[in-house]
């Protein structure tokens, strides 16, 4: 079972645990046009590995290979996507591949839609007021 961790708690873990990693599994288009978590205050950068490849959204066949090249199996890894679905799938795959401490960022970077059909104001990384930037 993968634990859903609220974004603010993820931020605190990234700030306090030197080996903790934030793996953003959104697409390159999302990174470019929606923005990225800004982790410089923690002395880190988000690890950017697409779970699905834009524009066809087919699974990234090299996802686990790319993860293994950058993250030790013992490190705490927090997976982030737009709303929490793709990141949960990525966390499950990582856990199955032997990663011991994997977590899903609850509500992702933008969270669910608000009453006007917009993301980013209800829940998630941006709504929690955590640092982010445009690429």
Structure in words:
With 135 residues, this protein is an alpha/beta fold. 27% of the residues lie in helices and 20% in strands. It has 4 helices and 9 strands. The protein has helices spanning 7-16, 28-34, 63-70, 85-96, and strands spanning 3-5, 21-24, 36-37, 47-48, 52-53, 58-59, 76-80, 101-105, 132-133. The strands form 3 sheets. It has a 5-stranded parallel sheet. Strands 3-9 form a two-stranded antiparallel ribbon. The chain has a two-stranded antiparallel ribbon with strand order 5-6.
Set down the secondary structure blueprint:
Blueprint: E1 3-5, H1 7-16, E2 21-24, H2 28-34, E3 36-37, E4 47-48, E5 52-53, E6 58-59, H3 63-70, E7 76-80, H4 85-96, E8 101-105, E9 132-133
Parallel strand pairs: 1-8, 2-4, 2-7, 7-8
Antiparallel strand pairs: 3-9, 5-6
Mean pLDDT: 97
The overall strand count is 9
Percentage of residues in helical conformation: 25-40%
Q: Compute the CA-based radius of gyration.
A: 14 Å
Q: Could you state the order of secondary-structure elements as H and E?
A: EHEHEEEEHEHEE
Instruction: Report the uncertain regions.
Output: none
Largest sheet: 5 strands, parallel
| Coarse structural class | alpha/beta
Q: Could you tell me how far the N terminus lies from the C terminus, measured between alpha carbons in angstroms? A: 33 Å
Report strand %: 15-25%
Query: Strands of the biggest beta sheet: in what spatial order?
Result: 1-8-7-2-4
Number of helices: 4
Shape label: globular
């Amino acid at each position: 079972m993968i634990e859903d961790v609220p974004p603010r708690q993820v931020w605190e873990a990234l700030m306090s645990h030197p080996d903790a990693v934030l793996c953003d599994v959104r697409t390159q288009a999302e990174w470019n046009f929606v923005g990225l978590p800004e982790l410089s205050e923690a002395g880190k950068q988000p690890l950017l590995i697409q779970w699905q490849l834009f524009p066809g959204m087919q699974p990234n066949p090299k996802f686990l290979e790319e993860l293994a090249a950058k993250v030790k199996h013992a490190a705490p890894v927090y997976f982030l996507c737009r709303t929490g679905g793709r990141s949960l799938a990525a966390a499950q795959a990582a856990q199955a591949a032997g990663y011991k401490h994997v977590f899903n960022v609850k509500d992702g970077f933008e969270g669910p839609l608000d009453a006007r059909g917009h993301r980013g104001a209800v829940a998630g990384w941006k709504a929690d007021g955590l640092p982010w930037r445009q690429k």
